[in-house]
Design brief:
heterodimer; A: alpha/beta; Rossmann fold; 7-stranded mixed β-sheet; two-stranded antiparallel sheet; about 20% strand; B: alpha/beta; 5-stranded mixed β-sheet; about 40% helix; globular
C-alpha cells in the first residue's frame, strides 16, 4: 500500500501539547519537512529556547540543546563553530528573540553566523499567559497592556525584518504566514531557502512566521487566523527582504 | 618533555594551561584585569585550528560555552567579578545540564563596578553556587603562576571527570604578576563524550538515538530526581576532590588560613614569626569547594588560635568557623575595596596572644 502522507522523520511521535489553533505545530511540521527534504536530520543540532518553544527539543527528532531565555543564537553560534559539519538551527519566539535575546540575535546576524533561525512572532508572550511582547501591535490588548498598546506609554513595536535587514551579515531573511495551505507552502519554501543558505555556508538566515495565538488573543482559531491576515500582516508585511543570490543558485 | 622556563603572567598561565589541556575553544568579553587572556587566545587559537570568539557580552559568552560544551568540545571562558556576575545564570544551566567547562574569575574590587584592584570578594558566589538553584562548582584557588598553569590543566580533567563546570579563582594580583613557568607536555583535545550533541551522523550505527541537553524538568518528581542525582555527585566530589597545602603546621600554635595571593603574604609572615620564636603555620585551602574541612578541623584542635586573612569582609571566614573545633579561637584580618594584605599586618596579628 502506498503511503501518501506521514509524520516527517524529523518529528518524534510525541503529541504536540499546543493550544487549539496555535501555529507552533504547523511551524514544527514545516521545519521538520524541510530537514527531511534536505536530508539534514542526522546532521542537525536544534536549539530550543524559552517560552512555548521550550519543548522544541521533545518534538524534533534530532540532537537538540535547550538554551537559556534569549540565548539560543549564542548557543547555536558555539555549536556551529564547535561542529561546523553539523546543521544548526534555533526555534525561538518573539519575547525570546526580540526582547531578552535581542543582543544575541543582532550580533549573530551581524557576524553572519552560519546558522538558521525559525522565529515565531505571535505578538505576545504565550507561555506566561499573553503579556506584551516587543512585537505587540499598536492598540493590541495584552495582560500587561490592558488598555491597548500605545506608543506614548508602552513604546512602539519592533519590526525584526527591518532591523536585521540593516546588517551585512544575513544571507536570507523572510517573513511568512501560515493562514492558508498556499501560504503554508510558501512558508516551507522560505524555510528551505533559509536552510540551503546555511548548507552553502552563506551566513545567517532567519524566517519569521507570523503566528496565531488564539488562547492569549482571546479569539477563536478562525478569528485568530483573520487577525493574522488582516491586522498583523498589515503591520508586518510578509515577503523575502534579503536573498543572497547564491541562495537561489544550483 | 621540554625543560624550559619562561617568564609569564598569571593571566597568560591560565591560557597556556588551557591550551596544553587540549582546550581549543574560548569565548570571552573584555574586562580588566584579565583581558590579556582573551588577547592571547585571539592570537594563538586561530593558528591552532581553534576557535576564539569575542562575544557581545558575558551573557553571550557563557551561553556559547554551554553550546560548545554540549557539542562535546573542551571550552573555557574567563572574566572578572562584574562579568562573572553576568555569567551566573548560565552557570546554573551548565551545572544542571552537567556540561564540563572551565571558568576563570580574576577577581577585582567590588561590589558594583568597584575598581580594578585585586580582591577576594567573590568567594561566596564561587563556592556556594552563585546562580539560582541548588548546585555547586568545584573551585580551585592557585597562589603562583606555576600553580595557575597546573590547576587550569587539572580543572579541565575535573570538569570531564564530574561533568561539571569548574572555577579557577584568582585575583588581579595573581593575574597580572609575572613569574617563572615550567610548562608540561601538552595533550591533544579529548574525543567528544558519549552524551554530546554531535549530530546523529557522527555516531556509530548502534548509537543513533537523538540526544538532548536540557534543564527544564516538568514531569512530576523529575526535578527532584535531578536534584538528588546532582547532590549525590556533589557529595562524591566533596569526598574525592579536597585539595590543600600546609606550611609549618606540624607544631604550630597559631595558624593562618589564607588562599590565593594573600597566602603568599601569610607565608612570609609565618616565616618571620618563626624566626622570632612564634610557632606559626599556614593552612592554604587549594580547593575552596570542596572546602578542606577535615584537615582544618584536625589542626584547629591543636592550635591556640586561627587567623583568617582574606581580601574581603570575611567570606571564607564563615567556612573556617563551620569547619573548626568550637574551642578554637578564630580571628580575622580582612581588606576591602581592592586593598592588599601585607605580611606585616598578618605578622602583627600572629604576635598577639
Amino acid at each position: 500500500m502506498a503511503v501518501l502522507f506521514s509524520r516527517p522523520q524529523s518529528l518524534t511521535d510525541t503529541p504536540f501539547r499546543y493550544c487549539p489553533g496555535c501555529h507552533h505545530g504547523l511551524a514544527h511540521r514545516l521545519g521538520a519537512e524541510a530537514l527531511d527534504e534536505l536530508n539534514l536530520r542526522e546532521k542537525a543540532v536544534g536549539i530550543a529556547s524559552v517560552g512555548c518553544s521550550v519543548y522544541t527539543n521533545e518534538f524534533f527528532n534530532c540532537d537538540t540543546q535547550q538554551a537559556a531565555h534569549g540565548r539560543a543564537p549564542a548557543v547555536a553560534t558555539a555549536v556551529k563553530r564547535a561542529r561546523p559539519e553539523c546543521f544548526v538551527f534555533t526555534y525561538q519566539g518573539d519575547g525570546d528573540l526580540a526582547s531578552i535575546g535581542m543582543a544575541e540575535t543582532i550580533h549573530a546576524a551581524a557576524r553572519g553566523e552560519n546558522i538558521s533561525i525559525i522565529f515565531i512572532n505571535n505578538a505576545c508572550y504565550g507561555m506566561t499567559g499573553g503579556q506584551m511582547a516587543p512585537t505587540t501591535l499598536p492598540g493590541q490588548k495584552t495582560t500587561t497592556s490592558p488598555l491597548g498598546r500605545e506608543a506614548a506609554r508602552e513604546g512602539n513595536p519592533i519590526d525584526m525584518m527591518k532591523l536585521l535587514n540593516a546588517l551585512e551579515g544575513p544571507a536570507y531573511l523572510s517573513r511568512v504566514l501560515l493562514t492558508s495551505p498556499g501560504k503554508q507552502a510558501a512558508a516551507k519554501r522560505s524555510i528551505l531557502r533559509a536552510f540551503r543558505a546555511q548548507m552553502k555556508g552563506l551566513g545567517f538566515s532567519l524566517v519569521e512566521i507570523l503566528s496565531a495565538c488564539p488562547s492569549n488573543w482571546r479569539m477563536t482559531p478562525v478569528e485568530a487566523l483573520r487577525y493574522v491576515d488582516e491586522v498583523m500582516a498589515k503591520y508586518y508585511p510578509p515577503g523575502e527582504v534579503r536573498v543572497a543570490k547564491e541562495v537561489l543558485e544550483g | 618533555m621540554k625543560d624550559q622556563v619562561e617568564l609569564v603572567s598569571g593571566n597568560r598561565a591560565v591560557a597556556r594551561g588551557a591550551l596544553d589541556a587540549g582546550c581549543r575553544m574560548y569565548f570571552g568579553y573584555p574586562i580588566t584585569p584579565q583581558t590579556e587572556i582573551a588577547e592571547y587566545m585571539s592570537m594563538v587559537l586561530p593558528e591552532m585550528n581553534g576557535v576564539f570568539l569575542q562575544a557581545e557580552s558575558e551573557l553571550a559568552a557563557i551561553n556559547m560555552v554551554y553550546g560548545a560544551a554540549g557539542a562535546g568540545r573542551r571550552v573555557m571562558t574567563t572574566s572578572s567579578s562584574p562579568g562573572i556576575s553576568l555569567m551566573m545564570e548560565g552557570l546554573s544551566y551548565l551545572a544542571t545540564a552537567e556540561l564540563p567547562c572551565v571558568i576563570a574569575n580574576v577577581m577585582r574590587g567590588g561590589p558594583g563596578l568597584g575598581n580594578i584592584s585585586p580582591a577576594q570578594g567573590d568567594y561566596f558566589q564561587a563556592v556556594k553556587g552563585g546562580g539560582h538553584g541548588d548546585y555547586h562548582t568545584p573551585v580551585l584557588a592557585p597562589w603562583s603562576v606555576q600553580e595557575i598553569y597546573d590547576l587550569t590543566r587539572t580543572a579541565f580533567d575535573l570538569a570531564d571527570r564530574w561533568r561539571n563546570p569548574v572555577f579557577i579563582l584568582l585575583d588581579g594580583l595573581l593575574g597580572t604578576m609575572m613569574e617563572p613557568l615550567r610548562t608540561r607536555e601538552p595533550v591533544p583535545e579529548r574525543e567528544a563524550p558519549s552524551w554530546a550533541t554531535t549530530g546523529i551522523f557522527a555516531r556509530e550505527a548502534n548509537d543513533r538515538t537523538p540526544r538532548s541537553i536540557y534543564t527544564l524538568h516538568m514531569p512530576e518528581g523529575a526535578l527532584t530526581e535531578v536534584n538528588r542525582r546532582l547532590q549525590a555527585k556533589y557529595r562524591e566530589i566533596a569526598r574525592e576532590e579536597v585539595r590543600y597545602d600546609e606550611h609549618f603546621t606540624r607544631d604550630a600554635e597559631v595558624l593562618v588560613v589564607a588562599y590565593g595571593s594573600v597566602a603568599r603574604s601569610a607565608l612570609q609572615a609565618v616565616r618571620i614569626a618563626r624566626q622570632q620564636g612564634r610557632r606559626a603555620g599556614l593552612f592554604r585551602p587549594v580547593s575552596l569547594w570542596p572546602f578542606p574541612e577535615e584537615a582544618l578541623y584536625n589542626l584547629s584542635e591543636k592550635v591556640q588560635k586561627i587567623l583568617v586573612a582574606e581580601m574581603s569582609s570575611g567570606q571564607m571566614l564563615e567556612d573556617v568557623r563551620l569547619a573548626t573545633a568550637p574551642s578554637c579561637k578564630i580571628e580575622f584580618a580582612g581588606a576591602m575595596g581592592g586593598e592588599l594584605i601585607y605580611p606585616g599586618t598578618i605578622l602583627t596579628r600572629l604576635q598577639e596572644e
